[in-house]
Amino acid sequence: MGILYNRVADQLQTLIHEGVYREGERLPGVRVLSRQFGVSISTVLQAHQTLESRGYLVARERSGYFVQLPSRDTPMPAMPKPRVQPVPVTARELAQDLCSDTRKNMVPLGVAVPHPDFLPLRQIQQATIWAARQGYETLDYAFPGKLIYRRQLAQRMTAIGVPTAPDDILATNGAQEAMIIGLRAVTQPGDIVAIESPSFPGILQALDIVGLRVIEIPTHPVDGVSLEGLQLALDQWPIKACIVVANHSNPMGVRLADQRKKQLVEMLEKAGVPLIEDDIYGDLPHEGDRPRPAKAFDKTGNVIYCSSFSKTISPGLRAGWMVPGRYMVEASQQKVFSNLATGSIPQLAVGHFLEHGGYDRYLRAARQRYRDATGRMRAALSRDFPAGTAISKPVGGFVLWVQLPNQASGTEVFRLAHKEGIHVSPGKMFSTTNKYEDYLRINCANPWSDRIEQAVKRVGVLAAQVAEGE
């Protein structure tokens, strides 16, 4: 029997290599394969389990077995060395270059924006139509935010370990504005802020706009931000705030363990330093329950919580929010000074969507889809990029952090790929210095297609050429 199911597994593996069954496709049902190979259903199931152990199949609950190609054993990216001096932030030019390269004809492997197929388009269209019919509710200034929106957010925050009332919440134009408001509420231009390194470019933009200096704290690809490095910085410099993405950081996709979140919150409270938490990827774990934010361990209101639905519902709605804690007065003033209020229709639409349970139903499928897309892209990169490439292993979100071999220039790969209509993000965008010159960030939130597959192969060829000095 063992020889027979191994023989079936070998034949299926050959068919996968020959492209009969392509990566991401569902295998025919066990009854179909049983007839095809002239074996029992139990033999087919054992063959499936064998291929799963080899890394060629992945089982999805109530859906069957799907093809995945095994990746070679790729290392994790290196942990950066700390920088000992605070530096001013100059992120605007790089960010503008990145945004200007998002034309529709480019293969979108750069900006961390989900493809529309990953978003609940039909449900949001229906919710927006409902919102537009709410009469005067759509016309007035919605400060501090529409009640339906803030009530639903309060329920969700409470469910993840952060007891919250609607009046504790301030609606914002995305998480980006929430972070800018948070920074302006607790700092003055020229102050020093501690951030993770590598750090999401949007955070660097926020720091640049507010006119702050930064200390970059090295981040481990598994454990997250170095708490030891942060404590050293706190001991040495007059840090006025700290920004951390505790759940599924961008670009590494790492999540702090609950004990480390608690330690982080207590460390900053003891130092009298506000923590600004960006939890925009918190709803997208690849496995298990939705993780608690660092805010769940906040006993004094010292954590300014920021998030949005840009990665799960719609980037264009700009539906964000913040829980400023004890800094509510300052944050409210900054919001009024900047733009008075956030748009009413997006808040009404998202509030309606949440209220009727559509978001939770969507998330159940979306989390698996993001996980599968990230795993598929990681396998493709490990096959098609040059030997010695290191790739992150995110536990949530949908981006990969890629370290090129031989200190190859990610900026040069970005430029060469751009000429061929492929957009990737160069690593130097994720720091105030050029310490990540040999890195790329890859967006995985695209439906797999021949176009995406060929683009990955081509970027791999370009990376090899740059690594070899051609």
The main β sheet shows up as:
9 strands, mixed
Distance between the termini: 53 Å
CATH class of the domain at 121-359: Alpha Beta
- Shape label: globular
What is the CATH architecture annotation of the domain at 121-359?
3-Layer(aba) Sandwich
Q: Write down the CATH topology of the domain at 121-359.
A: Aspartate Aminotransferase, domain 2
Rg of Cα set: 23 Å
Decide which structural class fits the backbone.
Answer: alpha/beta
Strand percentage: 5-15%
Query: What is the number of helices?
Result: 15
Structure report:
- By secondary structure, the chain is an alpha/beta fold.
- Among the domains are: about 1-65, Winged helix-like DNA-binding domain superfamily/Winged helix DNA-binding domain (Arc Repressor Mutant, subunit A, Orthogonal Bundle), CATH 1.10.10; about 120-360, Type I PLP-dependent aspartate aminotransferase-like (Major domain) (Aspartate Aminotransferase, domain 2, 3-Layer(aba) Sandwich), CATH 3.40.640.
- The chain has 15 helices and 17 strands.
- It has helices at about 1-15, 30-35, 40-55, 90-100, 120-130, 145-160, 175-185, 200-210, 225-235, 260-270, 330-340, 345-355, 360-385, 410-420, 450-465, and strands spanning about 55-60, 65, 85-90, 105-110, 170-175, 190-195, 215-220, 225, 240-245, 275-280, 305-310, 320-325, 390, 400-405, 420-425, 425, 440-445.
- Strands 3, 5, 6, 7, 8, 9, 10, 11 and 12 form a nine-stranded mixed sheet that branches.
- A hairpin with a 7-residue loop joins strand 13 (about 390) and strand 14.
- The radius of gyration is 23 Å and the shape is globular.
- It starts with a helix and ends with a helix.
- The mean pLDDT is about 90.
